[in-house]
Amino acid sequence: MTIYNLGSINLDHFYQLPRLPAPGETVATGGYSTGLGGKGANQSVAAARAGARVLHVGATGEDGDWALQRLESYGVDATNIACVEIPTGHAIINVDAAGENTIVIFPGANRTQSPEAIARALEAASPSDTLLLQNETSHQVEAARLAREAGMRVIYSAAPFDIDAVRAVLPHASLLVMNAVEARQLRDTLGQELSELPVKGVVVTRGGEGAEWISAGSEPVFAPAFAVKPVDTTGAGDCFTGFLAAALDAGRPPAEAMRFAAAAAALQVTRPGTADAMPSRDEVDSFLEQQA
């Protein structure tokens, strides 16, 4: 079983601030660092750290060798990452003393995906495999359609939220993952309850209030959040999604997969960074044993 991830790859620039700046305000940073990021790379690293076989499909600029090396160091197959003339994507991430953040993204190479390259990457896929998608690349619809034609599970992380993108991918998705704000926007725009959407399940993450799996004809599955002191909440949703995908890929039932993912996200927010802050499966298992 393999998780294929059509996902973004960014160089994250982190600025530690006493508070997030108001419009027109300049705030001096107390610290600066860089790291591997992008919702796609974050989810690939999380799934690989969770024990899944992960093949990343994406693109970087000629300045992106470091990203490939970092992905491979975490066990992600980078064979299907193209090198293009546009610079690698990057993000400016401001993090305040409470761990909250604001983010500005330059998409760069992430918007140059090739339908032909995606098709080649998925040629060996089987119904036992999974495709992960987010809204930070191009050609999500083509990838989702090809994956469903191959009988694959398609997990769509609908962020950054864009209603037109969701409408286009939804007919090909198996599982839709959103945060509470995105879920409310989708429900209000479509005029449908989440359980009425044409997917097998909808997972809504609610930060410190936990996460919920909603599906038609079944009682919701709720996974409470674990009490931790957050250092940086950037990438927590990606950590959750990557670990959830890995758990489902391994055949775990929704309730068990959700608890596993919630524990991983709890550990991830206690560390600075995004992809580089993802915990290992052993760390998550140990954390869960302590909770029991």
From TrEMBL:
GO terms for biological process: D-ribose catabolic process. Substrate binds at residues 10-12, 38-42, 136, 238. Requires a divalent cation, most likely magnesium in vivo, as an electrophilic catalyst to aid phosphoryl group transfer. It is the chelate of the metal and the nucleotide that is the actual substrate. Coiled coil: none annotated. InterPro entries: PfkB_dom, Ribo/fructo_kinase, Ribokinase, Ribokinase-like. ATP binds at residues 179, 205-210, 237-238. This is Ribokinase. Pfam families: PfkB. PANTHER family: RIBOKINASE, SUGAR KINASE. Residues 272-292 are annotated as: Disordered. Keywords: ATP-binding, Carbohydrate metabolism, Cytoplasm, Kinase, Magnesium, Metal-binding, Nucleotide-binding, Potassium, Transferase. Signal peptide: none annotated. Homodimer. The gene is rbsK. The keyword Ribonucleoprotein does not apply. It catalyses: D-ribose + ATP = D-ribose 5-phosphate + ADP + H(+). Residues 7-280 form the Carbohydrate kinase PfkB domain. GO terms for cellular component: cytoplasm. It comes from Allgaiera indica. Catalyzes the phosphorylation of ribose at O-5 in a reaction requiring ATP and magnesium. The resulting D-ribose-5-phosphate can then be used either for sythesis of nucleotides, histidine, and tryptophan, or as a component of the pentose phosphate pathway. Its main location: cytoplasm. Pathway: Carbohydrate metabolism; D-ribose degradation; D-ribose 5-phosphate from beta-D-ribopyranose: step 2/2. HAMAP family: Ribokinase. It is found in: Cytoplasm. It is an enzyme of class 2 (transferase). Belongs to the carbohydrate kinase PfkB family. Ribokinase subfamily. Its cofactor is Mg(2+). GO terms for molecular function: ATP binding; metal ion binding; ribokinase activity.
